[in-house]
């Protein structure tokens, strides 16, 4: 059995993402640093516990980290949009939303 000829071997890339959480009650801050090998991108986000809510640090961690990851996704989408425009793509309508808007 013959295999199709490929123009280049499959590429495997590894991107390093570090997520740093710091808590200063009632605030939790998340900082993400993404190293793609070509670029280093950074995002930040916060979560604040209401004084009426119980003190559950994991919730603040999850909210801050989730928000920072969403922010990083937006940064990557904007970077891709700029790169597509730079190479002359005709089909750039700006960064795609991370999820459809609710009606």
UniProtKB/TrEMBL annotation:
InterPro entries: Rv2632c-like, Rv2632c-like_sf. It comes from the Bacteria. SUPFAM superfamilies: Rv2632c-like. This is DUF1876 domain-containing protein. It comes from Streptomyces roseochromogenus subsp. oscitans DS 12.976.
